[in-house]
Q: What sequence folds into this?
């Protein structure tokens, strides 16, 4: 085929593609068989052969090509369309053309390919990718990968806990299996200065994770189709369109057995035995090996999760102590005893809590719920809330220090500034030109300033719409609570339901409503999460962030804002809205003009908030474990069952990995999101639920091992990625920590009954002898209940039925601080009400200022970077200047060396040596600066 024929073919294909995109012709007609391009059209006139064909050499553990020399750095899997009989064959020819174009592009870039058929499925083809030494050096320089230049010569500081090593060594991975790695000073790789780097062997200089990362970088940017000025590239698009079925790096061995090949490190097996296996649940994580095998991004996640779990242990001990204190004092609590006392609580008749159908009830019917409330609503709660406010500050500050240490040890200190490249999706859309404000040169961008504004505005509008949708669902659940409370109250208070009599002491309308509403709220949360996830990903893709970090940060913010409202809105309603605007029996407040607002239990709404937190935290943990563990395990089991006919055949390493589950596109995003939402429950509402850190600790101990087991045994090897820190989650955690102080102070002030008790104790109580100098809590319950004359009920609120024991009563009680009927200020707020309000506001102001001041002092006193790490960073920079940059100085000095005919004249000049020496020193100083 001549060049003119090829140009004519390309023009025809362009025209047909445009017509197909406009819908004017069938897309299947775009690529007829005779128009498929050959490799001569791909590589600018030179012939490129196809990938080498090789049969499996019956070495299942081999990580090399058939020659046993070239290492497999990546694997591509596709289905051979020629083996299938489809009606739309031309669409598959188009896929084949794109695949061949991509493979030819890879070979043009210097990569070597070898294709092998599947052992058990003739339709599958595995294309193994190898990166030669020159290609590795080139892309290591492009990606600014840091590599060792010389061993670390700084003396390590001895640990202050070294005298406990005889005990602590049992909680670390076995040193015989996972030894400590040698420490090196590193510098960004430069191909022309290879002699300055610590190269023992070319085969081992670049680790497998580095090689896989470079291979994926090339695959993400290799073109698979070029039409005029439009260039399409990236393995991601080909995976999405079905051209390739999978693309992944290889595990180095089976997780439960050593490799039969000699010289393999078997790092996957070591990770399974010392990290992912249930028997190792008590051991510290081998973070350096995790980072080496899976990359820095996976390593930093498990480092953060482990550090968070370790800090939770302290919070769990204090929280458990507060719970035990509350549990032991529930029987001796004055207010719970008064509620349960037949002479006090049994004599107090409460007003109906809904219109018409509800009836009068005795206070002692809430005896059990009052006892349970005392477990969580006691003076230790205040201490624990303040402790958690300080704890969260210490957690964030110490994590910054630990993170700084990991940044140095894992060579990610300057990662964001010099390593991160644009996303392929971003580069593919760069069709507009602009002047770079820094370099003043032309550069291509995917959108104009106006287009950027439109994209961001659409994203913000969509997020706000979904947040309003969540709020609408919360209102719907509130309406459900009101309607169900009405129904439960009518049944549980009815006289004629004798069968419910044994349960009346334990089942209250408030409790029954709270439990069912919590379950429904959890279901709604899960459904909205599934729907919004797709919307958030679509919006972020539409916004087209430049780098992967920017993409993840944008998606993180959207998902967290949504989940924050989704998970916490019902809790905020119970904590700060329920029971706050109910009016009084004569003039109740209605929602939507129909439903009478809910009232809290006489002891407050704290027990309902505790119930809500328990249901959501427990349900979320169970649901996540089902999704993360059970589903991939079941899928792998089903596949093994379906392929058991070929189980006698020996499968190569690449095919064994293909049958594992693929990692999602967002990787660890959902793992972080799950933990940050849990962090919110632990910190925002801990004043109402001191057991939250205990539940979080138990969940995280399982979460670490479950995540480890999952990625080690059930999933293909993750493409290693660099990461400097935990990204956008860090400021989110800081924001949650700041909000937690105000949230817990307001829960203690407005949701718990602590402030009214203190006000009563110090201002309104009397000793049995009528002496204010000896205050007591006796009579507190009676002081919190106002009196209402039943004759003042409106016709719409008056109960239809009255119990037999109420026939001679003329008043009932309700929870509020109002003057009784007959008073000059009948049903108006009493003096005690204003005392309580003033005390609540004063409490919030004082506690917030004290805690925020403590947080500020701790943040200032604790430096973000340890002194030892600062010294190591400075030492490394100095060595980089001395070793690497002095090479430039030698080149400059060599250029300044005079020609032979000038040497005699230079030698005659006495000042020449001094000038040259000064010039050389000038260059040296400048380079070192």
A:
């Amino acid at each position: 085929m001549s060049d003119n024929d090829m140009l004519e073919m390309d023009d025809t294909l362009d025209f047909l593609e445009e017509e197909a995109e406009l819908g004017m012709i069938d897309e299947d007609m775009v690529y007829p068989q005779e128009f498929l391009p050959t490799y001569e059209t791909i590589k600018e006139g030179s012939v490129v052969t196809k990938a080498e064909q090789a049969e499996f050499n019956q070495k299942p553990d081999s990580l090399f090509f058939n020659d046993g020399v070239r290492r497999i750095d990546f694997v591509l899997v596709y289905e051979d369309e020629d083996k299938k009989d489809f009606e739309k064959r031309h669409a598959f020819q188009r896929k084949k053309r794109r695949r061949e174009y991509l493979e030819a592009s890879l070979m043009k870039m210097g990569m070597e390919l070898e294709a092998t058929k599947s052992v058990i499925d003739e339709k599958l083809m595995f294309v193994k990718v190898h990166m030669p030494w020159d290609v590795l050096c080139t892309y290591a320089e492009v990606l600014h990968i840091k590599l060792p230049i010389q061993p670390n010569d700084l003396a390590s500081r001895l640990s202050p806990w070294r005298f406990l090593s005889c005990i602590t060594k049992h909680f670390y991975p076995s040193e015989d299996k996972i030894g400590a790695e040698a420490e090196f000073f590193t510098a960004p790789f430069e191909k022309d200065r290879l002699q300055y780097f610590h190269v023992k062997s070319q085969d081992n200089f670049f680790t497998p994770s580095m090689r896989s990362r470079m291979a994926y970088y090339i695959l993400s940017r290799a073109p698979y189709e070029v039409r005029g000025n439009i260039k399409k590239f990236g393995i991601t698009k080909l995976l999405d369109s079905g051209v390739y079925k999978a693309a992944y790096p290889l595990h180095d061995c089976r997780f439960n057995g050593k490799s039969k090949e000699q010289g393999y490190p078997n790092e996957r097996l070591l990770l399974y035995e010392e990290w992912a296996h249930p028997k190792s649940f008590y051991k510290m994580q081998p973070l350096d090996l995790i980072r080496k095998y899976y990359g820095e991004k996976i390593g930093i996640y498990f480092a953060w999760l482990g550090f968070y779990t370790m800090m939770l242990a302290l919070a769990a001990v204090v929280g458990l102590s507060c719970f035990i204190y509350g549990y032991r004092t529930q029987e001796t609590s004055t207010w719970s005893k008064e509620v349960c006392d037949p002479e006090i609580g049994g004599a107090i008749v409460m007003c109906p809590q809904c219109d018409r159908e509800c009836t009068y009830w005795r206070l002692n019917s809430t005896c059990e719920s009052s006892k349970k409330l005392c477990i969580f609503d006691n003076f230790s709660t205040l201490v624990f809330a303040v402790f958690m406010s300080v704890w969260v500050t210490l957690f964030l500050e110490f994590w910054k220090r630990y993170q700084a240490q990991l940044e140095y040890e894992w060579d990610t200190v300057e990662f964001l500034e010099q390593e991160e490249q644009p996303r392929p999706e971003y580069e593919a859309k760069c069709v507009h030109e602009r002047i770079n404000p820094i370099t003043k040169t032309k550069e291509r961008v995917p959108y104009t300033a106006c287009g950027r504004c439109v994209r961001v505005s659409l994203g913000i509008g969509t997020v706000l719409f979904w947040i309003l949708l969540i709020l609408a669902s919360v209102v719907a659940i509130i309406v459900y609570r009101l309607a169900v409370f009405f129904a439960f109250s009518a049944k549980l208070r009815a006289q004629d339901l004798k069968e419910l009599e044994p349960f009346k002491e334990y089942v209250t309308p408030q409790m029954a409503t709270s439990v069912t509403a919590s379950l429904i709220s959890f279901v709604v949360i899960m459904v909205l999460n599934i729907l919004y996830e797709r919307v958030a990903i679509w919006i972020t893709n539409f916004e087209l962030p430049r780098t992967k970090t920017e993409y993840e940060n944008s998606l993180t913010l959207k998902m967290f804002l949504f989940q924050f409202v989704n998970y916490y809105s019902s809790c905020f309603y119970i904590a700060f809205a329920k029971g706050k605007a109910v009016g009084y029996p004569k003039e109740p407040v209605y929602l939507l003009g129909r439903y009478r607002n809910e009232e809290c239990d006489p002891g407050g709404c704290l027990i309902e908030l505790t119930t809500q937190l328990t249901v959501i935290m427990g349900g979320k943990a169970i649901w996540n474990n089902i999704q993360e563990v059970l589903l991939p395990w079941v899928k792998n089991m089903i596949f093994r069952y379906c392929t058991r006919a070929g189980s006698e055949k020996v499968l190569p390493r690449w095919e064994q990995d293909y049958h594992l589950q693929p990692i999602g596109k967002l990787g660890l995003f959902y793992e972080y999101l799950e933990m940050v939402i849990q962090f919110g429950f632990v910190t925002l509402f801990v004043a109402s639920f001191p057991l939250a850190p205990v539940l979080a600790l138990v969940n995280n101990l399982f979460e670490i091992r479950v995540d480890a087991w999952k990625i080690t045994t059930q999933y293909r090897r993750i493409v290693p990625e660099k990461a400097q820190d935990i990204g956008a989650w860090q400021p989110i955690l800081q924001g949650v920590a700041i909000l937690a102080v105000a949230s817990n102070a307001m829960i203690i002030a407005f949701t718990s009954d602590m402030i009214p008790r203190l006000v009563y104790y110090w201002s309104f109580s009397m000793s049995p002898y009528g002496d204010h100098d000896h205050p007591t809590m006796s009579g507190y319950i009676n002081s919190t209940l106002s009196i209402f004359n039943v004759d003042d009920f409106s016709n719409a609120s008056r109960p239809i039925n009255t119990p037999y024991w109420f026939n001679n009563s003329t008043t009932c009680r309700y929870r509020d601080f109002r003057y009784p009927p007959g008073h000059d200020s009948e049903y108006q707020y009493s003096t005690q009400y204003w005392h309580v309000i003033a005390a609540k506001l004063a409490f919030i102001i004082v506690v917030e200022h004290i805690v925020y001041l403590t947080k500020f002092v701790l943040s200032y006193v604790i430096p973000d970077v340890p002194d030892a790490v600062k010294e190591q960073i400075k030492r490394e920079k100095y060595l980089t200047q001395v070793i690497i940059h002095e090479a430039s100085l030698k080149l400059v000095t060599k250029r300044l060396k005079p020609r032979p005919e000038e040497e005699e004249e230079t030698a005659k000049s006495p000042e020449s040596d001094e000038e040259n020496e000064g010039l050389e020193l000038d260059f040296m100083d400048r380079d070192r600066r």
Residues 3-271 form one domain. The CA atoms of residues 364 and 852 lie 41 Å apart. Confidence is low (pLDDT under 50) at residues 1-49, 493-506, 906-929. The longest strand covers residues 124-130.
